[in-house]
Amino acid sequence: MAFKIEHYIDADNKVPILQKRREQTQTEDKVVDRKSDKMMNTCVIEEGNKNGDFL
């Protein structure tokens, strides 16, 4: 049985901290892409827009 859980993080209207993606091997890139796709498909994460806006 799966539960849909949502939470809210109060960031006090501050801009999120964005970090540059670190360099990875091609094998690591494939793993990251596969896991990211899985999390997006199960609604754990959402795709952001190109401007870096999260809201």
UniProtKB/TrEMBL annotation:
<protein>
    <submittedName>
        <fullName>Uncharacterized protein</fullName>
    </submittedName>
</protein>
